Amino acid sequence: MTRPFLEVFPREIRDQIYTFVLASPSGVVTLSPWTLEVARSLSLVRTCKQIRRECKDIIWLHNGLKLREPTQLTHKLNDLWKFRSVKYVQHLKIYLALLDRDELEWMSTAFQALAGWSRNGSLRSITLTAVRDRPRSVDEFHEELDLMIHGVPVDGRLYRESSARTTMVINTGWPQFSHWGKQMWLREMLLDPSQTYEFLKKMHDTLRGELWVDGVLCFKDQKQVVQAFNLDPRDGEVQFIVGGSSAR
To answer: Where would a tag sit more exposed on the chain, N or C end, judged by fewer CB atoms within 10 A?
Structure first.
């Protein structure tokens, strides 16, 4: 029978393990926007009361605290603007695992950069699509596999972009650090549908124009068009039409 972790390792060894798990590479724990890396590391403190007590001081011994900072995604999009070809991009499609609070907050941090794309370039629409439960073609599965193999880490997620003249596609996803059963459980655990309205409105106010949620026009020129709307976080789609009318 396997002996419990707390009995096998003495405290000094446990402290080294805690430090390895909890110490952020940047030396900072950022609570907003939330990232998968934070969720994965802090899950250790929910193991049991004794481990929580032992970890409590180690977290702040090796990490500072920031409530908010510019995301790596923001820097990534600002860096992309340096390429001349990006100035010709008219349609940006971004695929996310979910359209919940955490993912929309993450995206909202980058919308100032995208507003610059629309002011100084050709960007006309931004589409956010949840792929959690969406039926996908063989090509889309190949794109997901390509993301898992060649994607680069951005804010604790995997990121990979591709473009064809006027359209750019950005695929994002969570690292496959566990088998599929645990991955499914983690997605359900982290799913937070609260405050999606606030983040969608914030993004719309940044770009103005129109905001469509699952095919329904919800905001136009910073005015709400419908009384209420529902966004499916697992299979939904949000489209921002920048400063004009869509061809619907």
So the answer is: N
